[in-house]
Amino acid sequence: MGVLCDVFIADEERALKYCFRGKCKCKNWVSCKCWDEYESTTYHHIDSHGVYDRDFAHLLSILRGKKRGISLMKEFKMIKQFSKQGPWIQTVPEDLPNLLAEQGKDELKCIAKEWSDRYTEVSAHPDEKSILSYLKLLQKLCKKSIRLNQKMYLWTSL
Fold first, then answer.
1. d(CA 8, CA 74)
2. H helix runs in the chain, sequence order
3. How far is it, in rounded angstroms, from Cα 44 to Cα 152?
4. Averaged over 84-102, what is the pLDDT?
């Protein structure tokens, strides 16, 4: 079983409820039935399986014109965590949606090439074409985030 990761947009109050269990005494969140789940399908989101906060930190460093991305991981603030194995929700730095939204087709291709070179999941390393397709989806979500005046978040679970 791998790591699950989604990128979604919402206001902060709703973001805290994304596929998340509220406070309860259940030991196993998978079987917990004592809360109202907000299904991911009711949010603007994309599945990001194989793309983690470290990869988003690399993307952010590319968009900012920096060489190192790992140091930017601290900017993806944890705002809710059920357990050490997840699920957890992190904020995406506010400039990432703006920076990605303004990129043209040629710039996206360059970003895909550079991001592919920094990609961390070596065992499932996608090719540039897959990364470019993902970037286009992410860019659409970024534009929607700006248009709807909503923040972007990562939801991750082991």
1. 19
2. 12-15, 53-64, 95-101, 105-118, 128-148
3. 10
4. 92
Amino acid identity at 44? H
Residue 25 pLDDT:
59
pTM (two decimals): 0.83
Q: Which residue has the tokens 């949606």?
A: 97
Tokens of 78: 């944890």
Give me the count of residues in the chain. Answer: 158
Joined tokens for residue 51: 């793309």
pLDDT value of residue 1: 47
Structural domain includes residue 136: yes
Range of the domain at 104: 4-22+33-78+92-157
Kindly list the distances between the CA atom of residue 22 and the CA atoms of 7, 17, 31, 44, 52, in Å, as whole numbers in the listed order: 20, 8, 13, 21, 24
Specify whether the CB–CB gap between 73 and 90 falls below 8 A.
Answer: no
CA distances to 13, 106, 128, 151 from 110, in Å: 36, 7, 10, 26
Considering its fold, how many domains does the chain have in total? Answer: 1
Tell me whether residue 83 is in a domain.
no
Confidence of residue 129 (pLDDT cuts 50, 70, 90): confident
Retrieve residue 117's tokens.
Answer: 């070179």
